[in-house]
Design a protein that fits this description.
157 residues; alpha+beta; two-stranded antiparallel ribbon; 3 helices; 7 strands
Amino acid sequence: MGRSQETSGKKEIRKQKEKKRKDKEKKRALRKQEGKSSFDDMIAYVDEFGRISDTPPSPDDKTEVIAENIELTATPRKSEDDAAFLKKGVVSFFNNSKGFGFIRDNASGMRYFVHANALLEPIAENDVVVFETAKGIKGPSAVKVKIFREQPPAAKE
């Protein structure tokens, strides 16, 4: 079996690899001379406010946390809090024959898809509605949609 022929392309590739290796060696030698190769120089610390610094935190600043004092419970939602979850918006498009449309949220300007099955009462374009949001197939959808009616002011006695 004969030795494989070394072509000019193979020679070029070998020369490039050799040059890269030598350049890497030079850079490594320069870093050693500058003294930046220390791992301690690369360490960064984050304080309790999220700021990055090069000094470690003081052990005196630590706060003790008692695990028994941490409460892991879910509080039930009260009916008074339901109003906080309702969003208010305007029906920008609604097609009765196809049974879907879109609602633009007044607060955020986001558009929500609404299906006829999610309506509590019939709606039309430019109606002001209140609704809740839920995760839909292609993004957030409006559910429990009903027309917004302002509460009449309470009668003064």
